[in-house]
Design brief:
The chain is an alpha+beta fold and about 170 residues long. Helices cover about 30% and strands about 20% of the residues. The chain contains five helices and seven strands. Strands 2-1-3-4-5 form a five-stranded mixed beta sheet, covered by helices on one side. It has a two-stranded antiparallel sheet with strand order 6-7. It is elongated and about 60 Å long. The protein starts with a helix and ends with a helix.
Length: about 170
Amino acid sequence: MLIRLLVVSFCSLKVELDDVYRTRLLQCKGKRSVRCTEKEASNKSLNTGDCFIVDLGLQLFLWNGKEANKYAKAKGAEIIKKVHDERGAKGTITVVDGDDANNATFGEALGGQIEVTGNGGSSNEKAAVALADIIKLHHISDATESVTMDEVAHNEKGQFTRVMLDIKVCGCS
């Protein structure tokens, strides 16, 4: 009987927790293959050639640089919608275009208003090569008595191809 009362008392407790999110800045960069990567949440990270998402928890901002391409803008809109939906569609989404970066909350989140210049620092091709250095493909084998792991090299364009996958090893046909 005592245990039953404790369970009822415990289950009737109502705890309300506030959603706590850290401020972050996501950069959407690329031509046809757009990548979104987290950057330092500072106004110095902004440039006119890319799109940026400022995540303040329940306030989301999509800043489209005036020289950003349609693919980066579409990816930014897709990502911001996913984040918004993951949070139960709570909060607001504000789209800020190019020169119209005079939103006070947006500016404060990144350390104050500035004149955004530069078209993206490095080109999209350079960014793709830098990303290729991060992405690795490994061949893992237990053909010998121990498990070995060897890194597979990129092709001359810094890419991986389907041919690089050794289908015979995994038993696929």
